[in-house]
Every structure is written in structure tokens, then in C-alpha cells.
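Reply to dn_fold:

You asked what the input looked like. This is it:
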Amino acid sequence: MITKQKTNAVRIIEAQGIAYELFEYSVEDGLLDAVSVAQKTGFDPDRVFKTLVTVGKKSGVNIFVIPGNCELNLKKAAEAAGDKNIEMVKSKDLLPLTGYIHGGCSPIGMKKAYPTFLEEIASEYDYIVVSAGKIGLQVKLSPLDLVNLTGAKYADLV
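and this is what came back:
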């Protein structure tokens, strides 16, 4: 379902004049993982990307955006971030760090501009779908626009 809701991420996209589409999905069943979101929104699971937040001793907080049907390879992620190892941020630390909660974490419009890495497969797509910054709301946009908005670098992450 297409919606007109405005989140911080959507306001940023609009301010840059970027083409996008918003999609709302039901959260009543509690299924918020990217594969379930893909099923609910009718997108290929390869195109629905999840936003993961990590922390490393040397690199600090890093953002990784990967296909929802994949797992983040922490070794590859650490290498991309220039660290020996990194770990996932605990759910309770997401809001203070990013301004977003688990299940509604967008790579766009975080509290700070953290180093962001986008799985390189995204460069082969004309669009991807990411969280719009609220549980139940996704945004469809080009990977290049996401890179330009976030300063993301493409990397082999899965």
C-alpha cells in the first residue's frame, strides 16, 4: 500500500529532490524481518535491504545496508570499516545512537553521519527498498541516490 506519511528520512529525500515511493505494511503479526516485509510489500526479497548498526574498537559506529535475505559477514564488515572486528549494537542502544528503533532503522537521517556501507550487489539494481524510519514504512529509491544521501561506500558484506 502506498502512503503519504512523512518521516525524517522522507523529508531528507524530498529536500534533495530525489524520486522515491513509500510503502506501508501491516505490523500486527509482529513479523518485521526484511523477508516478511518483502512478502507484505510484494517486492523481491533481494531488493528489500535491512540496516544494521555495528560498533568496533577502532572504527566506532558503522552502518551496513544489506539484502534482507542475507546475513552480514562480520569479518568482511570489519575489513570494510577498517577494523579488526566489530559487533552488532544492542537493540537498547539503537535509539540513542541513531534516533531509530529496531525494525524501523533507516540508513537515511540518523542522529549522526556514521560511516555507511552498502552491499555491492545493490549497484546492479535500478532500485532497492529500505526502512523509511518507522516500523511499517518502507521507501523505494535508487541505490545511487542512497549512496549520495548517506555517503555510503559499496562493499562486499555478505
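The mean pLDDT is 95.
Hope that clears it up.
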